[in-house]
């Protein structure tokens, strides 16, 4: 578990400098870096951009597909004025594991390719001088790690990633690196939790610090007026007539936390927070006590050139396109996204289902990936995997807990819940994560098509259900689509007759579509067929009152492993990989702009 995950800010007490740019880079297929002293500098390295996945910058296949250890390095300057302060290097994400060396000294290791960590380099850096940071990365997949997969060795000795999941194993320093200088006596974390009573909002807060001191908390509205103040490391701020954070009508306050020691201001931290509540009641998903219907997407962090590297240009475009379609929500399939994504969602008023990279927990998963006929939850990797899984949920919640946009936590994607051996795993997981979120947001996981009301052994655990369903594509495809509709209705009738007392959100459905392929009458892969499949789903969704959301798979086409089922990636995007609309984008714009937020409750 990471202790300090606060997003970097600059103010009178804190500095940060982004170390993004061109870094030195080198593969280490033979694993010689350690004994050849690479931590002290990379010999004959090449340049590569950070943040970005390294893969798509290469023109040869061995490099693009590279699996194993890889190294990054760059120099950075630490000002003399930083002496006596905490100096840290914050890595927003290195995929999937990293060892951090500064000036040749091992500082720390980290596992988990989608969450941040800070290396405390206070004692390792030279002040008022040049320093060298070297990162030893590794992108091997295993059943003991998230996301799950295997690493195999080809006859030519090269390693190859065999993911149990359907997205490309983009690797490297995928998000920004920051040089932080912070006060030794400082704020390390805070939480907020809003309740609404009558005409007021109560914001319960806690602040964690490295030393005991006097904590003051000030809440300022968007006009800069102070609306509430509190003293002490925990307390409640009362805001009369609050501007609530609403779906697609966000309002943010600024929370300023100050820490004083011996009568002196020693640290300050600011963040934008939204005042809102979230609850599930019967079939309803409630935001501020009002039912909401989710419209939107399962997404990926994926774009040309930078792969899974965070690119604010891509994110800004995606936010604009989502708004254009009339969407109000998305799922961070299948891993926590860059922190800037949640900040933009906070500002734009999108609801986010935040997912941990527990994907591929099913050996027969996606047979197109070469499913293996074994039990996933019966495997001897389950114990070490559980530890990492819980660790990453803990860090995801710790990192994202204060974002008003975050609606729910998705703890797994398409695990094998038909296996009795999954039950103890789920029981433990839901028990161990119950108190992690001070806001107690709903927790859930997606159910694949195998996992139904009659087959799944784990339906007692989620607060609401996420269903991934593909009639019209993986079965009942093409001219048999009408049978797909009948089968989907038959399944939903079973859920209905079970007396289901929780909402269902469709978190995946769709059809691969080659942009520009038109056919009348439709055939599979044509834009016309994609629209027909999505229209079929809309008809079904509109027939069942307990369906409270639709997040189509996927927002945009994305890169996957190569294979007979994939023509240069997964093409279920409503937009192409370069973010141009397919016919389905216009279909959703028409549907979603017309659907009221409280659809099925008006
Ligand atoms: N669900 C049969 C997980 C996603 C995939 C999606 C697909 C599958 C479907 C499971 O990560 O991309 O195949 O399009």
TrEMBL record:
SUPFAM superfamilies from the UniProt entry: (Trans)glycosidases (SSF51445), beta-Galactosidase/glucuronidase domain (SSF49303), Galactose-binding domain-like (SSF49785)
Glycoside hydrolase family 2 catalytic domain sequence ranges: 278-593
GO molecular function: beta-glucuronidase activity; carbohydrate binding
Keywords associated with the record: Glycosidase, Hydrolase
A biological process from GO: glucuronoside catabolic process
Catalytic activity, EC: 3.2.1.31
Residues of the Glycoside hydrolase family 2 immunoglobulin-like beta-sandwich domain: 186-276
Glycosyl hydrolases family 2 sugar binding domain location: 17-183
InterPro entries: Beta-gal/glucu_dom_sf, Galactose-bd-like_sf, GH, Glyco_hydro_2, Glyco_hydro_2_cat, Glyco_hydro_2_CS, Glyco_hydro_2_N, Ig-like_fold
Family: Belongs to the glycosyl hydrolase 2 family.
Protein's recorded name: Beta-glucuronidase
């Amino acid at each position: 578990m990471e202790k300090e995950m606060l997003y970097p800010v600059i103010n009178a007490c804190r500095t940060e400098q982004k170390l993004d740019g061109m870094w030195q880079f080198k593969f280490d297929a033979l694993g010689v870096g350690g004994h050849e002293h690479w931590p002290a500098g990379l010999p004959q390295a090449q340049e590569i951009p950070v943040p970005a996945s390294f893969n798509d910058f290469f023109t040869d296949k061995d490099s693009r597909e590279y699996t194993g250890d890889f190294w990054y390095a760059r120099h950075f300057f630490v000002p003399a004025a930083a002496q006596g302060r905490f100096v840290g290097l914050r890595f927003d994400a290195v995929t999937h594991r990293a060892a951090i060396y500064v000036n040749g000294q091992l500082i720390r290791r980290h596992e988990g390719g989608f969450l941040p960590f800070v290396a405390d380099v206070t004692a390792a850096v030279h002040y008022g001088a040049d320093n060298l940071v070297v990162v030893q990365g590794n992108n091997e997949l295993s059943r003991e790690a998230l996301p799950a997969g295997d690493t195999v060795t080809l006859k030519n000795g090269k390693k190859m990633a065999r993911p149990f999941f359907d997205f490309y194993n983009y690797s490297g320093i995928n998000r920004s690196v920051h040089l932080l200088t912070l006060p030794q006596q400082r704020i390390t974390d805070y939480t907020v939790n809003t309740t609404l009573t009558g005409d007021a909002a109560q914001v319960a807060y806690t602040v964690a610090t490295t030393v005991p001191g006097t904590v003051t908390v000030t809440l300022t509205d968007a006009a800069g007026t102070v609306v509430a103040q509190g003293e002490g490391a925990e307390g409640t701020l009362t805001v009369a007539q609050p501007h609530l954070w609403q779906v697609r009508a966000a309002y943010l306050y600024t929370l300023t936390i100050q820490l004083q020691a011996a009568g002196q201001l020693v640290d300050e931290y600011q963040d934008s927070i939204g005042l809102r509540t979230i609850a599930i009641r019967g079939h309803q998903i409630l935001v501020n006590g009002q039912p909401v219907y989710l419209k939107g997407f399962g997404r990926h962090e994926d774009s040309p050139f930078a792969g899974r590297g965070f690119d604010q240009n891509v994110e800004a475009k995606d936010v604009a396109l989502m708004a254009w379609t009339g969407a109000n929500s998305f799922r961070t399939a299948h891993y926590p996204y860059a922190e800037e994504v949640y900040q933009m969602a906070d500002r734009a008023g999108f609801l986010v289902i935040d997912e941990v990279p527990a994907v591929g927990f099913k050996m027969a998963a996606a047979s197109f990936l070469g499913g293996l006929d074994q039990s996933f939850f019966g495997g001897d990797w389950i114990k070490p995997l559980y530890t990492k899984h819980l660790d990453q949920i803990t860090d995801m919640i710790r990192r994202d807990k204060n974002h008003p946009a975050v609606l729910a936590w998705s703890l797994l994607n398409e695990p094998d819940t038909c296996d009795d051996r999954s039950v103890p795993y789920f029981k433990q997981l839901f028990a161990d994560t119950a108190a992690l979120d001070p806001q107690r947001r709903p927790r859930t996981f997606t159910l694949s098509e195998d996992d139904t009301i009659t087959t799944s052994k784990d339906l007692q655990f989620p607060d609401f259900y996420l269903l991934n369903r593909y009639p019209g594509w993986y079965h009942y495809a093409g001219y048999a689509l009408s049978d797909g509709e009948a089968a989907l209705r038959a399944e939903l009738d079973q859920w209905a007759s079970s007396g289901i007392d929780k909402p269902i959100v469709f978190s995946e459905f769709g059809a691969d579509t080659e942009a520009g392929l038109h056919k009348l009458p439709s055939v599979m892969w044509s834009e016309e067929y994609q629209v027909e499949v999505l229209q079929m789903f809309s008809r079904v969704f509109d027939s069942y009152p307990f369906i409270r959301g639709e997040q189509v798979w996927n927002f945009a086409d994305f890169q996957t492993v190569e294979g007979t089922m994939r023509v240069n990636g997964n093409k279920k995007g409503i937009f192409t990989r370069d973010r141009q609309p397919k016919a389905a984008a216009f279909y959703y714009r028409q549907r979603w702009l017309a659907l009221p937020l409280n659809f099925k409750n008006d």
